[in-house]
Amino acid sequence: MTREALLVVAAFLACAVEMVEALTIVLAVGVTRGWRSALIGTATALGGLTVVVAALGPALAYLPIDSLRLVVGTLLLVFGLQWLRKAILRASGLKAMHDEDSIYRDEVAALRAAGRLPAHDWYAFTVAFKGVFLEGLEVAFIVVTFGGSQHNVGLASIGAAAALVVVLVAGSIVHAPLSRVPENTLKFGVGVMLSAFGMFWAGEGAGVSWPGSDASILGLIAFVLVIAFALVAVLKRDGSAQTTKVEAVESVEAVGA
Amino acid sequence: MKFLSRFARFWYDFIVGDDWRLAMGVVIAVPAAYVGAHGGVNVWWLLPLAVTMLLSLSVGLTARKARRH
User: Fold this and answer.
1) Contact at 8 Å (CB) between A204 and A64?
2) Does the beta carbon of B15 lie under 8 angstroms from any beta carbon of chain A?
3) Cβ(A56)–Cβ(A142) below 8 Å
4) C-alpha span between A194 and A211 (Å, rounded)
5) How many CB atoms lie within 10 A of CB A87?
6) Are the beta carbons of A202 and B33 separated by less than 8 Å?
7) What is the mean pLDDT of residues A91-107?
8) Confidence of residue A27 (pLDDT cuts 50, 70, 90)
9) Residue A114 to chain B, least CA–CA distance (Å)
10) Could you say which of A92, A208, A223 has the minimum Cβ distance to residue B43?
């Protein structure tokens, strides 16, 4: 029961975070270039993502559960630690907070600079499609891996679908970027859950016997939370916030990679 | 060829992200847990320990680099 409930919660939170980002892009496209092409691009991307989940989800059910958990748990742990690392750097002031208002303004400026509107606006279609598909790919990855590890992609899909409905309803009511959503806090929470589930499944797949069995997931979540908060506290204590410097260091590393 | 390298780059950025050391650490820790568990030792503590060390190392190095610049 613990596993199932946490599966739905994790899929819901991860999906909500990514859909808020996708919604910002779609709103910028719709308001600036018109809604028709923006919505067609969005619908096409959602169709593509559905195909990805529908194709990969059932296929995972045929794989041996231990091998699946070993591989998926390892992937989730790598993915979750990256997510958590960014969240820790943001919470400690070492990396810029994700700001939907600023992203929205940048998108609108870029879309306006793209020039006059043709009858069928391929530019708007492409920007909306790319935004929704790329953000959604992370959701699809989480849904397929979370669901696959418990041979229950359907349950993870329910969490993702619920988040989609909540974000779409909120977006259609507000008609502006959902900047009041505590997105950075949610990302912190999702990073914690991905890392904890990654450890649990990778451990199970490796043959480790967790103390307390399924209940150890809660212990792992608490453990990762404590480590993450402790690192935030240490980083805040040790240094003044140097947001631009971390971003500069990472861009130099990316160029060198 | 260009498409393949962009495709590979996308998946690298998607999964591995900004710090390859985290991925490398996980890829070492999980097989170590497998070897331990199949060698008759219940190494349930190994992954939490690895996560603590990897996260501390990664954010610590990033913070130190930021201060040096």
Assistant:
1) no
2) yes
3) no
4) 20
5) 23
6) yes
7) 73
8) confident
9) 24
10) A208
Indicate the pTM of the whole model.
0.74
pLDDT at A188 exceeding the cut of 70: yes
For residue A9, how many C-alpha atoms fall within 13 Å in the half-sphere facing its CB?
A: 16
CA distance A164 to chain B (A): 21
Compare A10 and A162 and report the one with higher pLDDT: A162
At A218, list the tokens.
């809660």
Quick one: angle between helices A35-60 and A122-149, nearest 10?
A: 20
- On chain B, the residues whose CB falls within 8 A of the CB of A135 are none
Residues 6+ apart with CB under 8 A from A93: A235, A236, A241, A243
Residues B62/A94, Cβ–Cβ less than 8 Å: yes
Which residue among A86, A138, A210 places its CB closest to the CB of B44?
A: A210
B5 touches chain A (CB under 8 A): no
* Calpha distance A5→A138 (Å, rounded): 20
- Per the listing, tokens 């923006």 go with A38
C-alpha dist (Å) from residue A257 to A75, A86, A254: 21, 19, 5
Length in residues, chain A: 257
- Name the region of A211 (left: φ>0; alpha: ψ -120 to 50; beta: rest): beta
In this complex, is the C-beta atom of B61 within 8 Å of any C-beta atom belonging to chain A?
A: no
Please state the length of chain B.
69
Nearest residue to A160 (alpha-carbon basis) of A49, A35, A30, A3: A49
Q: Can you tell me which residue has the tokens 């969490």?
A: A159
Nearest Cα residue to A80 out of A245, A196, A226 = A196
Asked if B14 has any chain A CB less than 8 Å from its own CB, the reply is yes
Instruction: Please count the other Cβ atoms lying within 10 Å of the Cβ belonging to residue A51.
Output: 11
Query: Which residues on chain A are in Cβ contact (under 8 Å) with B59?
Result: 85, 88-89, 92, 94, 231, 235
Output helix, strand, coil percentages for chain A, rounded to the nearest 5.
Answer: 85, 0, 15
| Residues in chain A within 8 Å Cβ distance of B65 | 245-246, 249
